[in-house]
Amino acid sequence: MTPPTQGHSTSTVLGRRLGGELTKLRTAAGLNQTQAGKALTASTTKVAKMEGGWVPMRDPDLRALCELYGVRDPGVVGGLLELARIDRERRKAKGWWDDFAIPGVMQEYVALESAATAIKAWQPAFVPGLLQTSEYVRALRETPAAAVTKSPVSDDEFIAARLARQRRLLQDPPLTLRVVIYEAVLRNFPGGAATARVQLEELVRAADLPSVSLRIFPFTAGTHAGLNGSFNIISFAEPGAMDVVYVEAPFAERWVEGGEAAAAYDDLFERITECSLDERESVSLLDKLCKEL
User: Fold this and answer.
1) Residue 14: is it exposed, middle or buried by C-beta count within 10 angstroms (0-12/13-18/19+)?
2) pLDDT tens digits, 188-221
């Protein structure tokens, strides 16, 4: 799944998020795209492209639309301006990821992850990418099941890109990571005991980082709606201000771009967390599993 294109324009996740907010504000004000275009001395087509996330949003245009729509709350206007700024940076920036062969939708995900201030990750099937060891990644890609969805990128390139992502956890300021992992992930390692031991020790080290909160969802917690699949909630400012959710499945990925849908995932993550072991208990379980190998 790659970002949709229209001519030389690209509809980005953050652009669509911003465009969706502007569409809601315009609709609430009882205005159409033609009226919005007149306020900007622009065509209806341009307004349509802005609302579809096809083009970067200029601050003067954004302020003019907020004024037209009667939006004067500094917090709301400031949040939209910040979202537009991040979107512009992501469109033009050359990041570390440009030096790696990163396939498909992960190109946009990695760019967003690089710009994020915080991520909440729920993973019922695998160790989250930001915490995977090179041994784990290689073993995972060598499993028979992986052949179905495996990208054409070589193992070495894929591993190098995965490890490069993890630098965010050590930068100043670091990416804040809250992660919850299903217990089954810790008992079903590709590559056998050797891979498991190294990966479990890495999880313990990661849990000791000030910016990382790691918790285990145990078998004893029973069934839960979150067991349907993994998702990452990506935040760029204050919690909930500009959240984007990345939902992954074997043959499809999708973005949930803010609003009530993203809030529902945030609520689900918090409910999963409430059913999980606390941080101390989670590390104790990791240590126990490591000793059993």
Assistant:
1) buried
2) 888 889 899 999 999 999 999 999 999 999 999 9
Beta partners for residue 122, in sequence order: 180, 231
CA dist., res. 172 & res. 223, Å (int): 38
pTM (predicted TM-score): 0.76
**Residue spans of alpha helices (H) in the chain:** 13-28, 33-40, 44-51, 59-68, 74-92, 106-115, 134-141, 155-165, 192-207, 259-274, 279-292
* Token reading at 287: 């240590």
Exposed / middle / buried, residue 204 (Cβ in 10 Å: 0-12, 13-18, 19+): middle
Is the pLDDT at 229 greater than 60? The verdict is yes
Q: What domains sit in the chain, N to C, each tagged with a CATH number?
A: 5-92 (1.10.260.40), 97-292 (3.30.870.10)
Q: How far apart are the first and last CA of the chain?
A: 39
Three-class DSSP category at 68: helix
Token duo for residue 259: 């609003």
